[in-house]
Amino acid sequence: MASADTFGAKGELNVGGRSYEIYRLSEVEGSESLPYSLKVLLENLLRTEDGANVTADHINALGQWDETAEPDTEIQFTPSRVLMQDFTGVPCIVDLATMREAVADLGGNPAKINPLAPAELVIDHSVQIDIFGRRDAFERNVDFEYGRNEERYQFLRWGQTAFDDFKVVPPGTGIVHQVNIEHLARVVFDRDGVAYPDTCVGTDSHTTMENGLGVLGWGVGGIEAEAAMLGQPISMLIPRVVGFKLTGEIPPAATATDVVLTITQMLREHGVVGKFVEFYGEGVSAVPLANRATIGNMSPEFGSTCAIFPIDDVTIDYLRLTGRSEEQLALVEAYAKEQGMWLDGSAEPRFSEKLELDLSTVVPSIAGPKRPQDRIVLTDAKQQFALDVKNYGVEGDLRSAPVAASGGEHEHGQLELKDGAVVISSITSCTNTSNPSVMMAAAMLAKNAVEKGLQVKPWVKTSMAPGSQVVTDYYEKAGMWPYLEKLGYHLVGYGCTTCIGNSGPLPEEISKTINDNDLAVTSVLSGNRNFEGRINPDVKMNYLASPPLVIAYALAGTMDFDFDTEPLGQDGEGNDVFLKDIWPAPVDVERTIQESITQEMFTKGYADVFAGDERWKGLDTPEGDTFEWAQDSTYVRKAPYFDGMEQEPAPVEDISGARVLALLGDSVTTDHISPAGAIKADSPAGKYLAEHGVDKKDFNSYGSRRGNHEVMIRGTFANIRLKNLLLDGVEGGFTRNFLADGEQTTIFEASQAYQEAGVPLVILAGKEYGSGSSRDWAAKGTTLLGVKAVIAESYERIHRSNLIGMGVVPLQFPNGDTADSLGLDGTETFDIAGIAELNEGRTPKTVKVTATKESGETVTFDAVVRIDTPGEADYYRNGGILQYVLRSLVKA
Questions:
Q1: Domain made up of 655-891: CATH architecture
Q2: What pLDDT shows up at residue 623?
């Protein structure tokens, strides 16, 4: 649709003999001093102004933005494209396929269900590290991956042919966010002769990695992404923008990972949930693009919506290195300069709040044992571990147990496994494998270690899972693979692996020793997430570290280690070797990178990125506009969200007689709500798969089965580390069924009993409810369990909007109140009055909650309604965002 162009902003930009239509920001008063990120939003509104969803008042509100005010102006943001990975992408395509049938049922045209903006999906979350420490690990893991996931991959290939403007990057190519910055990101779009900033939302919270390139975008739930694909703008409030000034340079001993962990801690402490973060200052031009991307990637870890860098020469140089055309580079530079979006290091835009970091003060760090923001200075790590391990059942000294060797003695003699042992050491995840400075540092540290005669401890499961094939190429050219492989870091796959919970099983005797003796062992990974129960079911404590430190900890073999005072081993002459003796000098790392990375590596690697290998091409793929659902499939099933849906939504009703399904504490993540990792045999999901003829070895992960709602409902709140405070000292997916005298049962079974009896459910929770991944199944599973409302102390952005998108109302305890302070223990019956006001077109600020105890005593309080925009109110009234979009399409 053409813009109403009230401001006369439409004009021309000539670049290299070509003319592009653009919308000039200079026509809007106040635009010049806006932060870069808001300039991108302003252009978006100018281009999509239609007088209804986007009006001149919205545009003026952005131009005249009051940086000191609390957000209260709603705008409609239309992203240029949508990015998905396969865990979140499969349910998106399941929903779109189901919507095609639902449109036909309501008398509409199924072909209307098509992405209106480019949608790209990268299969990167499904490779698991079954095989490691050997040359054929990559090939064998990919074989396993295809064996487990054939049904899903056939379905995605069908989607690639059935939907317009939808492309799939096949398995074994790279990690979605690295493929995005190295190839998919446009930075400036050229579509139908119009030039405009590339904006992109993705179904993975780390979509913010593209912020390092100046691309505005963030993670959304799959449900919001589907709506965006179908042309539905994203409703948002004009945010506060935190200016983060960078000065100085990183010291020799520190890495980009250390910078990121420092920034993560600073911003979590400052409080940036729901805000934009933007980097500025003279120091920005000295930050390499890979470091910018690493910082942008961690935005969900500090809680901001985005963490963005403006466009400058560093951006252009990176686009050139990664093989973008000279025509594209010229357009990006000319457009950014024309629109005032080119970095001016001396200028200070209007910011709501400001922070500053002198990069020279950054020191080597790790983070753990269960949250990315819990940074530990490396020199304090041994001391801190001794304190933290006490929270994992270790009283007094660290315990040890002999490892029973299967089939005789270990080649290394009798092994002792101790609390704190590092049993997983994994270089993985987009956060760091996209960054040559830390990847080459790891390889050179490995080379130095091998030359000193050091070895990784025999109980450590080692792995190397780069984010793109370019990493393999530059390791090859630099001659680094022999050293990495000597320490066990063979290529295991190009995917998220350990970071998403696909670390694969530990060797049987190691796993048995851990579990028989209840040892508190550790993992060290170069990822961005270390939540409880995420990395591996045998591992209680998880630490994030730079790639060179990942290897250093494998050489040490334990978290109970001080690198300054304890040697990693001895050299050939019997001299002690310390970490400082093998740590590569940054100048040597930089020289090796310059000698090893070429533009050709990128152009060759991405030349035919959507084609795939013979395995992908050989998949037997269904055809047709609508999908033929296989009735016996345990991977892909028709979604139930539109069953019995009418053209007009039913009126919203108040909630009465609700019982508490779970009473939860602070920092409950989307991993706790909807785990992505292994499926336990004795869990409801495991039993369902067994009943459907699936062998335990073929259970795969929750993440891979997100196309089957039957598995996912049973997996909701099934994380092995979930603590439901309705029960004492019990971990996992359990609750009390108050219809059966409060007896302990699984959350799924209790939900079934409540739903059969027509009893609605609520969840009570603490602070930061739903932090972590933009996992739509955390909201989908919640609604399918019969939960009508969540009452929490505070929410993370994505999960709150996902709940509304699935028809669950997010409520907040009054400021300063908690379930505990109100005297609630979860045994009460809840009535929530006032939600029905939404039927009159109003969103109530608060609703009255009455909790009735078994004694008849009542507790009443006014809960804040966290439906924050009129758009969200429309979604909730319709029972969810997809129902709203579907009805809109049929009406149109």
A1: Alpha-Beta Barrel (3.20)
A2: 86
